[in-house]
Amino acid sequence: MAAATSVSVPAKSLAACALRGPLGIAAPAPLKHFDPRRALANLAEDVKSDSTFRIPLIDFSKFSSATSQSEKRQTADEIVNGFKEVGFIYLNKHGVPDGTVQHAFQKSAEFFRLPMEEKLAWKDPRANRGYVQIGRERATQSADAEEIAQLRAKAPDFKESMEIGRDWDKTWRNYWPQESAAPGFRHTMLEFFQTCHDLHILIMRAIAIGLDLDELFFEDKIHEQYHNLRLLNYPPIRRQLLQQEGQARAGAHSDYGTLTLLFQDSVGGLEVQNPHTKRFQPATPIPGTIVINAGDLLARWSNDILRSTLHRVVAPPAQKVSETESLTPARQSIAFFCNPNQGARISCLPTCMGAGRESKYAPVTTEEYIVGRLSATYH
Ligand SMILES: O=C(O)CCC(=O)C(=O)O
Ligand SMILES: [Fe+2]
């Protein structure tokens, strides 16, 4: 499995792609100029984590119902410190009702049980919508097509997924199953999408405060809902198979956008890399919480002050099914990948440079970066 690569983007090549629109927001660049090999995120350099590495548990109600600016600031600082040191936090009392999450899980499970002809296949990284069969994706940090093809052939990810984007996109439509085959699926997922978008806005306000920006700094850069709701199903699998070299339910990777909101069931298996020791440590499910991690674009935006940490999904404890065989139980999760606006130009935030801290990355648009990474991961 390829290690995280540190590659910076030459200013010239990306500047040439970023055509600025009338609102100062970069228009989508011609994709043919984009080389994902040159744009994989760095991990943060100021390594603060050590063997005491621990994903912090943060009570978000202290931010959302704060009565003073100093109260807000306290939780904002906790959140930003979590992303600086670990790159992951558990968010508690986040305002998304348990019932809403349970309902989304139930509808997701119903979707994966549908016959194949109802699950319309994912086709295009620019659309990033539809059903992804087991073995089609190989999460990795590598962007070398040949290396990924070899990895996929030898050790594909043992998972299937359903990818959903904003439903009103001018170019791409979602691949919904027939309403009669999956009653309520579409409605549930669209509501869930909106709920997650609203939470993203609130957390980005906290991050803005924690980075000494105006609380509403990100507002007009993240409002277009250029996000991706991913339903994940990890079928039960013979443990021996998962223990083969390089094999995992999802290989080590970083996420691409601002934040990922991850809802997991109680099975476990998600592991997060301690950036200091390089060891993977479990992100044990905590009921009622959302696991939230910073993605590559937030790391780039913040000049690597906030960390986009490697993570993977491995086999949780197996159940014995015979004298010689044990079965790793099925697992379900839902990841909401939050992104800045499609044409937003991600360049170093004003409070993240200066005082000897140079801007490390050339600007890139959200679409250039994300489509480049997606093209490298799927076949
Ligand atoms: O299923 C999980 O717990 C994590 C999935 C993940 O990291 C991803 O899809 O990017
Ligand atoms: Fe991920």
From TrEMBL:
GO molecular function: metal ion binding; oxidoreductase activity
Keyword Metal-binding: yes
Alphabetical UniProt keywords: Iron, Metal-binding, Oxidoreductase
InterPro entries assigned: DIOX_N (IPR026992), IPNS-like_FE2OG_OXY (IPR044861), IPNS-like_sf (IPR027443), Iron_ascorbate_oxido_reductase (IPR050231), Oxoglu/Fe-dep_dioxygenase_dom (IPR005123)
Domain called Fe2OG dioxygenase: residue spans: 225-340
Key word DNA damage present: no
Matching Pfam families: 2OG-FeII_Oxy (PF03171), DIOX_N (PF14226)
Family per similarity comment: Belongs to the iron/ascorbate-dependent oxidoreductase family.
Protein name: Clavaminate synthase-like protein
Species, as recorded: Wolfiporia cocos (strain MD-104) (Brown rot fungus)
Lineage of the species this protein comes from: Eukaryota, Fungi, Dikarya, Basidiomycota, Agaricomycotina
